[in-house]
Design a protein that fits this description.
Blueprint: E1 5-8, E2 11-12, E3 15-16, H1 18-34, E4 38-44, E5 61-66, H2 75-89, E6 93-97, H3 100-113, E7 117-121, E8 123-126, E9 132-138, E10 143-148, E11 155-159, E12 176-181, E13 211-215, H4 226-235, E14 238-241, H5 243-247, E15 268-272, H6 278-284, E16 289-293, E17 307-309, H7 313-329
Parallel strand pairs: 1-4, 1-6, 4-5, 5-12, 6-11, 7-11, 13-14, 13-15, 15-16, 16-17
Antiparallel strand pairs: 2-3, 8-9, 9-10
Length: 331
Amino acid sequence: MAKGIWVFVEHKNEKIRKVTLEMLSEARKLADQKGEELCAVALGNSIGSFIEVLGQYGADKIYALENELLGQYTTDGYTKAIGDLVKEQQPSIMLFGATVIGKDLSPRVATRLGAGLATDCVKIGLDGNGRLTATRPMYAGKVIAEVAFSDDTPQMASIRPNIFPATVLSEARKAEVVRIKSNISAADIKTTIVETIKIAGEKVDLTEAEIIVSGGRGMKGPENFKFLEELADVLGATVGASRAAVDSGWRAQIDQVGQTGKVVSPNLYIACGISGAIQHFAGMGTSKVIVAINKDPEAVILSKCDYGIVDDLFKVLPILTQECKKLRSEG
């Protein structure tokens, strides 16, 4: 009989990604409703004590799958290691973050297990039979689908970052740590990591940023993104860009927000010189508050934002930055 709700732990340099803590907080509610334990599943070469924080966010048990071949993420290695453990323990639900790794890993694990998978979910719950239900945008956000599962095989979903709050239940709360030596071998891994290129900078990843300031074609050139960088520095924000700005070579692809870029859900999204095409809105439409600055009163983004400023962004941004500095200095 399937038992337990599992959350896949994303971590790097002994730091847990925020989306993992968000999933644990939300999954804790499901575990309490089902009367099942909540388990976190972390993979690595030798997993340190940094995983103990997971207990504070609701985990009852932490499975630490260890093998030198798991020290760096590979699709083949992680899929087999997780798949084997799921087959052995038979959890009822397993959650992944809808991140670069989660989007790569979750469908492969689901296929290996013959399980259903709901992707990029913005809401999860349980039906009357205790099965997972999920809400997910489809077709660039034009449709909101309510997804249900028809059987009791592991029900799987990937969760959009920044949708749920990460809540500490108790700083004194501890989870049982179960260390397992994974039996994967080099023969199980068909891909080889040749090189890892690190991008300089300490900015928060767009998918985890609480505030994002984005620029589009209205920025008129790469040199003008300095206005966004200055505002972002004051707000503690991350700078993003529309596809038009990226295709023009003004920003790197890693900064792109939209259907073909990164899907984000910050507390505040400031769109500067962005028209608001459906492809862009698909990537940021779940932002809690949207502010748009555009000199075109007919721009689509102005009909979808919470607050709109119809004016020249090169006049508005310096004033906005200065006023934010004043507010910050006043505490």
